[in-house]
Design a protein that fits this description.
single chain, alpha+beta, seven-stranded antiparallel beta sheet, 6 helices, about 25% helix, globular
Length: about 270
């Protein structure tokens, strides 16, 4: 059992995130990277830009991470024993490219209410300051803040949604070794800088694990039952993948990604690359 201890729960509740948490071995992380890069090789552009969502539906390695018992134990400590998987996102920053993530709150555009959910961000490669690790503004999860929609070049977010005037001196870098993860609250302000290293920085976000009492208020998307039971039945349930890049799962992922695009761009005046 790898439930969060009292100090870890205290950090999460007070600061809005907890890290680092050990969930994968280095070998498991490397094997996952290899599978991601195999998909990129076999299916060019399939998981680039707006294709980065729900890759766990075509990748058995990412599927195994989504349903990893160590991760689910930690998640259960926060949202309870009935856990649904509501989409995932790959964040890949290639070396010397200008990709970054502006300061934002996940809850602002994702439509999941109430906020009984949590995002797990798993480092597939080492994630540290020089290659653009996540940066958290502790205690910023108390309320939702105003966001500007910049649609700016290099921003890995759908609309370039940005919280302005974040006090940099209060922001904390969340450095993770490959195989470690952070858990963060739906409302915490966070972002990340560009990759200045000579290797890729690959992060995999289960975005998000939701309690069964959580509804999708901006559209629809399907879920997997990761643990416990769903007595509310607010969402359609889909199966786990059992084969790498199967035609059936590719079609299912396309449908789910179309749902997500409708949610992420609800009410937007234009559409970005992601």
């Amino acid at each position: 059992m790898t439930y969060l201890n009292s100090n870890q729960l205290k950090q999460y509740n007070e600061e809005g995130y907890v890290a680092p948490l050990d969930v994968l071995t280095e070998e498991e992380a490397l094997a996952t990277r290899n599978e991601i890069e195999l998909i990129e090789k076999e299916m060019p552009n399939e998981i680039d830009k707006s294709g980065r969502y729900n890759v766990h539906l075509i990748s058995p390695k990412l599927d195994a991470i989504v349903h990893n018992s160590k991760i689910l134990d930690a998640v259960e400590s926060i949202i309870g024993k009935n856990i649904l998987v509501c989409s995932s996102t790959l964040f890949i920053k290639n070396p010397k490219q200008e990709g970054f993530v502006s300061y934002h709150q996940d809850a602002k555009y994702i439509g999941l209410e109430p906020h009984n959910w949590v995002t797990a961000w798993i480092a597939i490669t080492d994630s540290y300051e020089v290659n653009g690790c996540m940066r958290m503004w502790p205690k910023s999860h108390i309320e939702l803040k105003d966001h500007n929609e910049k649609f700016n070049e290099g921003n890995l977010l759908t609309r370039g949604q940005t919280v302005e005037e974040v006090p940099e001196k209060e922001v904390k870098s969340v450095e993770l070794k490959a195989g470690q993860m952070s858990l963060h609250h739906p409302r915490i302000v966070h972002g990340s800088g560009i990759n200045k290293s000579n290797d890729r920085r690959i992060g995999f976000a289960v975005q998000s694990y939701i309690g069964t009492n959580v509804k999708q208020t901006l559209g629809k998307n399907s879920v997997q039952i990761a643990r416990g039971e769903d007595k509310y039945n607010y969402h359609e349930v889909i199966n786990r993948t059992n084969a790498l890049m199967s035609e059936e799962n590719i079609l299912m992922r396309k449908k789910e990604n179309n749902y997500l695009q409708e949610i992420f761009y609800k009410g937007a005046k234009q559409k970005g690359s992601y």
